[in-house]
Write a structure and sequence with these properties.
globular, 24% strand, 348 residues, 5-stranded mixed sheet, alpha+beta
Length: 348
C-alpha cells in the first residue's frame, strides 16, 4: 500500500504525470512486496555476550571487494549528438528494442516455463525520471510500461544507445556494475524507486563502500552530507532481491537482507546475504568489523572503515534456501563490542 500512497501523492502534487496505474495491479504488487519482506532477514537488537576475533587485517580496499570488471559490460556507440539532452519520447524510442529483451526472462515475462511475453506497444512505455534528469547517450534510464508486469516491478533498465544502434544487444550484467565503476553504480542507484521518500538523483555521488557477488551488488553512496544504501540485483533475479535505495543514517545495528538466485528451478538454490550502511560507535569505540553467522554455515567477517560497510555473501547450493543469521560487532583488536544480536527468524 506504500506504493499506492506514493503514486497518489505524486499525482496530487501536480509535478508528475497523471496516475495511470491500475489499483488492482498495485494490490498484487503490495502482496508481492509483503512476500519479499518475509524473505528478508532483519537482524536487530543486541543480546548475549560472545568473544569473536577478526580473522584478517582490515584494509580499506576490502570495502570495494568483488569482481573489478564484468565480461560483457559495454559502453554504447557514441554519436555526434552524444551530448544532446534527450526528450522522454526519444529515450523510449531508443530503449524500446532493448527493454523487450526482458520479456524472455521469467521475472519479467509470463513466468518460469512459459513462453516469453509478447512485445507491448511502444506507446505504453514511459521514462519516469525524464523530468528529473537530463538523459544523454550512454546514460542508464529506467523505462516502465503502463501495463502490469507479471513478475517484479515496472522498471526495466536501458543503456541509452546512439541513433542507429537501438538493436545492439546489451548484456543485462551491465546493470550490475563492477565495484570500481562509481559512475555506473551511481546511475543505476539513481534509477531505483526508494522504499521511503522521493527518487534521488545520485549521479555524481561518491561510492564509499561496495561489494559484488555474481548476481548482486551492495553499495553505500555519499552525496553531500547524506548517505544512501543501495542494492542492485541482476534483472533476472527473483523478486526476493529487489533494487533498493534508502537513506543510511548511523545506527548501532545491522540489517541483513537475504534472497535466493532463481536460475535453478529444482534442488538447492544459491542464497545471498547482503547489506550496506553506517554504524555508530559502541561504548565509545568505533566498529572495525562485523562478524556474521549463518545457521549451519561458516561464519564470515565484514570490514568496517570509518563506520561504513557493504557486503554480499553467497552460499552456493544452500539446502533449504535462506537460513537464520546473527552478527557481532568487533573493535580493531577483534574484541566484542556490546552483545551479539539475536538470531533472525529465517529458517534453514
Amino acid at each position: 500500500m506504500t506504493e499506492l500512497k506514493h503514486l497518489l501523492d505524486r499525482a496530487a502534487d501536480g509535478t508528475d504525470t497523471p496516475l495511470r496505474t491500475d489499483p488492482v495491479a498495485l494490490l498484487h504488487r503490495a502482496r508481492s512486496a509483503r512476500r519479499r519482506h518475509r524473505a528478508r532477514v532483519a537482524v536487530g537488537a543486541l543480546s548475549a555476550v560472545t568473544a569473536l576475533a577478526v580473522a584478517t587485517p582490515l584494509a580499506a580496499t576490502q570495502l570495494r571487494g568483488g569482481p573489478s570488471t564484468e565480461p560483457g559490460a559495454l559502453t554504447p556507440a557514441a554519436s555526434a549528438s552524444g551530448d544532446a539532452t534527450l526528450s522522454e519520447s526519444e529515450v523510449v524510442a531508443r530503449c524500446y528494442e532493448q527493454v523487450q529483451s526482458y520479456n524472455a526472462l521469467a521475472r519479467w515475462g509470463a513466468g518460469a516455463g512459459l513462453p516469453p511475453r509478447s512485445k507491448l506497444p511502444i506507446e505504453t512505455y514511459r521514462a519516469p525520471n525524464s523530468r528529473r534528469y537530463d538523459y544523454r547517450v550512454g546514460d542508464v534510464a529506467s523505462v516502465e510500461s503502463a501495463e502490469m508486469d507479471s513478475f517484479g516491478s515496472f522498471y526495466r533498465l536501458c543503456l541509452i544507445p546512439a541513433t542507429g544502434h537501438e538493436s545492439d544487444p546489451v548484456p543485462l550484467t551491465t546493470f550490475v556494475p563492477a565495484v570500481d565503476d562509481d559512475a555506473m553504480i551511481a546511475q543505476v542507484c539513481s534509477e531505483t524507486e526508494p522504499q521511503v521518500g522521493q527518487v534521488r538523483n545520485l549521479r555524481g555521488a561518491e561510492v564509499v563502500a561496495a561489494q559484488r557477488g555474481p548476481l548482486l551488488l551492495a553499495a553505500l553512496l555519499r552525496q553531500g552530507d547524506d548517505y544512501y544504501a543501495c542494492s542492485v540485483p541482476h534483472p533476472d533475479n527473483t523478486d526476493d532481491m529487489d533494487h533498493t535505495i534508502n537513506l543510511a543514517t548511523p545506527q548501532s545495528h545491522v540489517v541483513v537482507q537475504a534472497g535466493v538466485e532463481n536460475g535453478k528451478p529444482t534442488g538447492p538454490v544459491d542464497a545471498y546475504y547482503y547489506a550496506a550502511g553506517r554504524l555508530d560507535e559502541v561504548a565509545g569505540a568505533p566498529v572495525a568489523a562485523i562478524r556474521i553467522e549463518i545457521r549451519d554455515q561458516p561464519t564470515f567477517t565484514v570490514p568496517v572503515q570509518g563506520g561504513e560497510f557493504a557486503f554480499v555473501h553467497v552460499v552456493p547450493d544452500s539446502p533449504g534456501g535462506i537460513h537464520g543469521t546473527r552478527y557481532t560487532l568487533l573493535d580493531a583488536d577483534g574484541d566484542t563490542l556490546g552483545e551479539p544480536s539475536t538470531w533472525s527468524d529465517a529458517q534453514g
